[in-house]
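Contributing new records

If you add data, match the layout below exactly. Sequence lines come first and carry their own label; structure lines follow with theirs. Keep one chain per record. Anything else will be rejected by the validation script.
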Amino acid sequence: MIIAVLEIELHLPDATSLKDKRSVVKSLLARLHNTFSVSAAEVDNMDLWQSAVIGIAIVSNSAPHARQVLHNVLDWIETYFPHIYVTRHRIELR
């Protein structure tokens, strides 16, 4: 069993309040789950308006498949959420 984790740090320049930020992050997390069948949650920077850290996890029987899904998630975020900037990301396989 392979567990792959993707941690993404995001910059949300249009967020002017925590309410704005949470609206965007909540929408992103729901769409990630529906599109990729991954688990996703905000894991850090919860009190900062324009910054969020989200964690995404997938369980697979194949390391290359798990890694590919997480790379697809990154590409998808950059394509469908152009107003959000990925400032850092890290993939870890266990």
